[in-house]
């Protein structure tokens, strides 16, 4: 196995980690409008992800940095080509981070409500746009012989990619609802479970359509296996949710994300960004990658750092493993 | 196309705006993390309440600030791909690696442990909680190092070869990139300046409260800590700045000459305090100079030859072909002066403050004060006058907090402008680095969006900071003074809100 293949896998892993982790915190952000009925409930929702969302987001920064280092051509084509959608995502991530940090810094209801609106929209929009972006990456875009994207922003909004956006949006919302059921006690936990069922059914329909479309277009034997795993995990997550097994349900909704992202990357390989204009102009793991020396250094770094990161991030989840609820929120600190 | 709105110009403006804005927060984050960690360590060791109050007070300001640092940092990583895709293609093999290292080693560290620190007050035993803020501090410093190594490579590329077939630069020695003298001296200089910034921030805010005779114990401790930090960091900033200047003289003679508006090489070369010149004709019409000083700064020798702008321009034309290899000289010249001037001013105020608030036994008897009184800043022998004038001095000291911020911004503007027209010195020109496929409208849109967003956030941030500065240190509760003894906290408070931050 070549190092550039290893790095293709590692970047897939980083995106998977990002969607698994930030997936549920995007979901919880969306639930602040769909599920929470009052300020204390919104506060509880935000508290479930408070200690971890920042660490979750670093998976994106690492995926970006690793792509820059391991596949500079991919990084350059992707981020200059998807300029405006990426701009929207960046603006959302900026506002979202500030919203979490600043929301409770003033007691006024207006101030907090504005930041809560911000949390909802800045969770929803990126959750949708990441799916659009990946839909386009897998399907291929107009890339010329210099590896430059020559399409327009409207080319990115094709039915396949929009369906991809709907999948990530619903899947992350489902993942967030399951996470909320796992992390809370009381009424909100019961309602989160009910909502998870409804969102989960929509997710199942959208995801099945999108993944089958992908399989028919660019799939292969391995991606078919991933597709079957994703489908089975989603069904099992719904069953576990109905049975009140919240830990299982969350693990399975996570597995759905893992398998779905794996399926996309498996159907992409060995391309990293196919050209719809001419197959020879596609970016591949070979023509987009860095030199073997750089890849070797990066492999050492990732090999040593990744297990350590997983250990201390895992520890964080363990420290904050307890369920939280509204019943002990005193009125004066309930905001 | 109108040159002022060319994508290259807009992309440069956007890079300048987003970077300088990001860098308002970074030095404060680096230094406040360490200073807060120091205060919390003092609390854990001495159990004095003033240290815990100080930790919570500065910790809160640190958090308001780091939030902005983190979110504005996201843009930095992606705008290379968005606006500078040809740069990314050409140098990604080298430049991407420290960025990826930063994310893997530093960002994860910083962001994970900051979550633990914010929410861990009632979930973690004292010492483990303390370790978390130190981890954050280590993360911020590592992160700065990797970024500065990447930037230093642009100032002075090492450890690479050019692959003509793939039209790109390729890494041959990563260790050289991480440890070259430009990276080391730039990191030293930037980190020292960061502590100067955090120290001055503490001095300014502590002086604000002392002028009003509020929170005296906490603020006196903070003031001393801030003053000591300013003085030590100020010295280190000057020493490392001098080292960096000598490195620059050897590696980037054009930057050195522009910093001094030295048009023609001289031996010995003078240091210019003020200059007004004609860029087109290549000479100064007015100049106030200290003879020999530039030679000394550049080469440790009062009589060394320092090449001028016109000489370097000619040499580079011979080497790289026809063209204008001069940066924007007024910006470089004045940027250099503002950097040094404001940096020196904060150091001077720190030194004066340390002298004026020196230990009790050094002061004459009638000027000594108890623990709950504000010391007088004494500059006159007239006993009646000094207590009256003191509050005014405290107010002046408050303004100190802005000085290093101004110095930092100009420092970056200088170092980045001084390298132009190169984006990687001697290797890649800025005009060849922009994204060819990105339209003028797209860059203009993003520049307007980011600038507007940053302007709004600046207002929000400053108002929040002002609110928490005015509020002063919090009153301590039972829970604050008796942290949990086991990880995860006590069962009885499992669903207590994690109230420190959100």
TrEMBL record, chain A:
Keywords: Cell membrane, Electron transport, Heme, Iron, Membrane, Metal-binding, Transmembrane, Transmembrane helix, Transport. InterPro entries: Cyt-d_oxidase_su2. It comes from the Bacteria. Signal peptide: none annotated. The chain crosses the membrane at residues 6-36, 82-99, 119-140, 160-183, 195-216, 222-240, 247-269, 297-320. It is found in: Cell membrane. The keyword Lyase does not apply. It is a multi-pass membrane protein. Belongs to the cytochrome ubiquinol oxidase subunit 2 family. This is Cytochrome d ubiquinol oxidase subunit II. It comes from Streptomyces camelliae. The gene is cydB.
UniProtKB/TrEMBL annotation, chain B:
The keyword Transferase does not apply. It is found in: Cell membrane. The chain crosses the membrane at residues 20-45, 57-75, 95-119, 131-150, 187-211, 223-241, 336-356, 392-413, 443-460. It is a multi-pass membrane protein. Keywords: Cell membrane, Electron transport, Heme, Iron, Membrane, Metal-binding, Transmembrane, Transmembrane helix, Transport. Pfam families: Cyt_bd_oxida_I. Coiled coil: none annotated. Belongs to the cytochrome ubiquinol oxidase subunit 1 family. This is Cytochrome ubiquinol oxidase subunit I.
């Amino acid at each position: 196995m070549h190092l550039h293949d290893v790095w293709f896998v590692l970047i897939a892993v980083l995106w998977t980690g990002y969607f698994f982790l930030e997936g549920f915190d995007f979901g919880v952000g969306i639930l602040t409008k769909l599920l929470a009925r009052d300020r204390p409930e919104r506060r509880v929702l935000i508290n479930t992800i408070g200690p971890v969302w920042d660490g979750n987001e670093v998976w994106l920064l690492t995926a970006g940095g690793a792509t820059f280092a391991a596949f500079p051509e991919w990084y350059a084509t992707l981020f200059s080509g998807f300029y405006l959608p990426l701009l929207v995502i960046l603006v959302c991530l900026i506002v979202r981070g500030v919203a979490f940090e600043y929301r409770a810094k003033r007691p006024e209801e207006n101030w907090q409500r504005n930041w809560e609106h911000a949390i909802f929209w800045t969770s929803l929009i990126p959750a949708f746009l990441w799916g659009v972006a990946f839909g386009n990456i897998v399907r291929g875009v107009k890339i010329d012989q210099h590896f430059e994207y020559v399409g327009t922003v409207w080319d990115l909004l094709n039915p396949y990619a929009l369906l991809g956006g709907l999948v990530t949006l619903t899947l992350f919302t489902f993942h967030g609802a399951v996470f909320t059921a796992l992390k809370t006690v009381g009424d909100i936990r019961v309602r989160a479970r009910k909502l998870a069922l409804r969102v989960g059914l929509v997710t199942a329909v959208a995801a099945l359509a999108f993944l089958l479309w992908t399989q028919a277009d660019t799939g292969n034997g391995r991606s078919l296996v991933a597709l079957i795993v994703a489908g089975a995990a989603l069904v099992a997550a719904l069953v576990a949710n109905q049975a009140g097994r919240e830990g299982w349900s969350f693990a399975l909704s996570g597995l759905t994300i893992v398998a779905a992202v794996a399926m996309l990357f498996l159907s992409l390989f060995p391309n990293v960004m196919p050209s719809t204009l001419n197959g020879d102009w596609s970016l591949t793991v070979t023509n987009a990658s860095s030199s073997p020396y750089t890849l070797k250094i990066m492999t050492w770094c990732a090999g040593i750092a990744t297990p350590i990161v997983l250990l201390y991030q895992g520890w964080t989840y363990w420290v904050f493993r307890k369920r939280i609820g509204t019943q002990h929120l005193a009125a004066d600190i309930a905001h | 196309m109108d040159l002022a709105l060319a994508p290259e110009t807009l992309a440069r403006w956007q890079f300048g705006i987003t970077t300088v804005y990001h860098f308002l927060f970074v030095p404060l984050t680096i230094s406040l993390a360490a200073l807060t960690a120091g205060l919390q360590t003092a609390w854990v060791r001495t159990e004095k309440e003033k240290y815990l109050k100080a930790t919570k007070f500065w910790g809160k300001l640190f958090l308001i600030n780091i939030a902005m640092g983190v979110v504005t940092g996201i843009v930095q990583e992606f705008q290379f791909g968005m606006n500078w895709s040809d740069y990314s293609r050409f140098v990604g093999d080298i430049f991407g690696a420290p960025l990826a290292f930063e994310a893997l080693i530093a960002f994860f560290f910083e962001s994970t442990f900051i979550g633990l620190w914010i929410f861990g007050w009632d979930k973690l035993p004292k010492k483990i909680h303390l370790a978390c803020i130190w981890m954050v501090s280590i993360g911020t410093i590592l992160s700065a190092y990797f970024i500065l190594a990447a930037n230093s490579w642009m100032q002075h590329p090492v450890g690479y070869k050019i692959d003509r077939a793939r039209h790109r630069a390729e890494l041959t020695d990563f260790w050289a990139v991480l440890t070259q003298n430009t990276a080391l001296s730039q990191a030293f200089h930037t980190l020292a300046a960061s502590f100067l910034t955090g120290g001055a921030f503490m001095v300014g805010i502590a002086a604000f409260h002392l002028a009003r005779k509020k929170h005296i114990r906490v603020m006196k401790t903070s003031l001393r800590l801030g003053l000591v930090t300013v003085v030590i960091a100020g010295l280190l900033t000057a020493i490392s700045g001098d080292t960096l200047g000598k490195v620059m003289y050897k590696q980037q003679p054009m930057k050195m000459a522009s910093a001094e508006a030295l048009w023609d090489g001289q031996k010995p070369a003078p240091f210019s305090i003020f200059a007004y010149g004609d860029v087109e004709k290549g000479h100064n019409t007015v100049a106030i100079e200290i003879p020999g000083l530039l030679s000394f700064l550049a080469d440790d020798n009062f009589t060394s030859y320092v090449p001028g702008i016109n000489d370097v321009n000619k040499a580079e034309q011979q080497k790289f072909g026809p063209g204008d290899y001069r940066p924007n000289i007024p910006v470089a010249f004045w940027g250099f002066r503002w950097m040094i001037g404001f940096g020196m001013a904060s150091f001077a105020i720190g030194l004066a403050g340390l002298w004026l608030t020196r230990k009790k036994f050094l002061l004459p008897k009638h000027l000594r004060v108890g623990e709950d009184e504000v010391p007088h800043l004494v500059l006159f022998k007239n006993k009646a006058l000094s207590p009256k004038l003191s509050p005014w001095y405290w107010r002046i000291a408050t303004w100190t907090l802005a000085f290093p911020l101004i110095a930092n911004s100009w420092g970056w503007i200088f170092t980045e402008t001084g390298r132009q027209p190169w984006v990687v010195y001697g290797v890649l020109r800025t005009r060849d680095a922009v994204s060819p496929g990105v339209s003028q409208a797209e860059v203009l849109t993003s520049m307007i969006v980011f600038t507007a967003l940053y302007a709004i956030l600046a207002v929000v941030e400053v108002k929040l900071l002002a609110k928490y500065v005015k509020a002063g240190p919090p009153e301590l509760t039972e829970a604050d003074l008796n942290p949990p003894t086991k990880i995860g906290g006590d069962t009885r408070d499992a669903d207590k809100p994690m109230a420190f931050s959100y």
